[in-house]
Amino acid sequence: MARNLLRAAAALTVATLVGCAAPSLQVAEMGSFHVGGRTVTLSGLPAKELVFTPGAPPLKLDPNGDFEVEALYARYTRLSNPKAKFPLLLWHGGGLAGTTFETKPDGQPGWENFFLRAGYDVYVSDAVERGRASWARYPEIFKSEPFFRPKKEAWELFRIGDTDSYATDPARRRALPGTQFPVAAFDQFATQAIPRWGTNDAATQAAYDAYVDKVCPCVIVVHSQGGNFAFNSALKYPQKVKALVAVETSGSPNPDTYDFSRVKGVPMLWVWGDNLGKFAFWERIAAQQEKFRNSLVRAGGKGERIVLPEIGISGNSHMLMMDRNSDQIAALIDQWLARQGLRN
């Protein structure tokens, strides 16, 4: 555990988090930790001789032994006088990491900054296999090889451009009309892409559950693929998850088997961008999420949604937190949380 990277006896003014022009934040503590995971012992693997640093003599590497694997990484910023009653946890989507919420690809501050300024203690995490959570050997621990997302898939799947609108030459790419995504920064966004595995869901869920158990009660704001994990963590710890905001979530548990009675006290909000109807994949996703949300409401829970075009906000991509109007969307989420009594 690497907690308390920076602790101050008194409040620490951190203007560099948000830029020189903005008023400073009064930060009490910043730190990070790993949570979850397990110990694995490997044996019977052949040793190798490797040169670890140019010019250094070769060193024999024995890959056998004990390893800590499948933990989650989290970094937090706690304010001196938060306005929110509970910390806000930002969970990323597939093939990405906590950078999703930090600084936007065009260099503007991200949602982490917005919610700190709104008065929340904020935690940003990298799930199992992502970013600073790191990898493990495969197939000995991770059971398959990773797969990698080409830029064309991200451009189209994330509804920045229509089908077959991507080109290697940025000048030839065709974005959807009126897109809010900063298309000039798309290649910068693509540098955030992280390999992912299709065989680690159980380990990822276990780490997220351990994370919630450690730091909550809390509010979870989750994006895309992360939604399924958040819904399951809320089911396991309904007293600890005080609200759940599903931002363009692409997955959720089976509503026919999910015990909605356990999460009746967890208000949930779904947030959707624009152009869902242009893509059959997203139409199916949205329909599945509506079935889940309606099941929650029928069970007596609170399940609301914001479809941005229906309230006059157009052009948003799948990456709402990176779009040019991301602060406007974050403000809608903040206002909804305030209506739930979670922020002063």
TrEMBL record:
The keyword Signal applies. Keywords: Signal. Residues 1-21 form the signal peptide. The keyword Cytoplasm does not apply. Residues 219-254 form the AB hydrolase-1 domain. This is Esterase. It comes from the Bacteria. InterPro entries: AB_hydrolase_1, AB_hydrolase_fold, Carboxylesterase_BioH. SUPFAM superfamilies: alpha/beta-Hydrolases.
